[in-house]
# Entry
Amino acid sequence: MNPLRKYYLPLLLFIITLSLTCSAFAQVPLRISIKFILDASGNRPATGNLNTDAEINTEFTSAINILARAYTEFSVDRIEFVDLSGLSQWYSTSAATTTGRDQLRTAAIAAPATYHWRTDAINIYINGGTSSAISDFPPNNNIILMNQWCGNTPSCILHEMGHSLNLMHTHEPCCTNQDACADTITDNSSWTKDQLAQNNYGCLYASCTASQKNAVDLVYNNVMSYHTDEPQLRLSPCQMDRVSSQAYGDRNWIASKIPVYVNKYVAGTSGTFASPYMTLQGALNAGGLDNRVLVLQQGTYTTSQELINFNLLDIVTRSGPSSFSLPGVQKYILPVELENSKNPGVSNAIKSVQNEDRSARNVEKTSAIAETNAVRPEEKAAIRADANARAKFHNDNAIKGLLDAEQFAESNEKLAIQLELAQRYRDAGDCGNAIRFFRKVAETTDQPGLKEEALSQIGRCDKKSNIGK
# Structure
């Protein structure tokens, strides 16, 4: 979620639109433990799809991006990456059948230290086998064995995790709905996109309607399909529900943070996936949200709560964009009416700042009218240049007034002035001075929300400065 900045008017209503990031910890992180089984000489294979750190990192990055793009609440948290020596008897074990997977799991559970077996993560063992990959369905969803030639793209790891979270292949002949999801059309692993369209709608893909094409794409480009000639990027709403239901059931051993669900369309009461809170305020009133992830089903929500501690609570949106309105989100408390400060040095300096600010605004107003009335382009340009120069004069004087006020101020008044200086320097494009004052704030304050905001602004200024180089 994008960082939220403070608003000074506590009664101002506004809408915050939630967006997803690719950070593994912005959503509900599912723990993954990667173990590479080495050969008798202590080596990984020299060739393959999963034999280097870079290849495996790419798999994880793709998985994170796909989950974010699909508006799921989940991400993947690779908690470790271990090379296992002394287990070369498993180096060539095939992932073509369940036999090798199950034997490996039995051995690992019997000797957890040797196999680096974990009970709080999905254990992924990668070896030098020449097959693809095999996972296991719940309730035995604690292991994935990966050989070197898994062909799912761009993330074989995410495809196998799908099975661990109760997803079948789109072509799986399991039941009435084939893959247990009514929103995916009939599939066959050997069909082309045209054949998929033809067998479901009686038309070649190019001739199908937009809704028919979307249904074909949802399956053909599905994370759980075998159609690897195009990227497998999509998940259906039903698939997402199956994943959410399974992951919530396994939350105590697989999730780094526990999700708390809010769904305005379901009359639930407990914050579980099956019985979500129906309102955002209901979730906040229930409490117990520290270090949890509040998951909003797509939609608009309201709350009357003025203070939400975003340092302890992540909020993500599911199935699509969400928004909520509330009286000004307040991450920290600082004084504002410094013109009434009991410190005369502060109050006098701040009054001068207010005068300069008012003069700068007046310059902008009068010049805007003059510029509108001007006819010739060169006349408009001259008016604008003069206005910019006069406004800069007043803005510079306002900065000087704030610097004077800083010298007299103490405690939170000083912090408020330093934050204002940092913001003004930032908005003027002076990242050097902005960083200097944001750093003063971060190093002085004892308010976590204020420190987080200052450090975040330093990072943005650093990034902006580097881009400009």
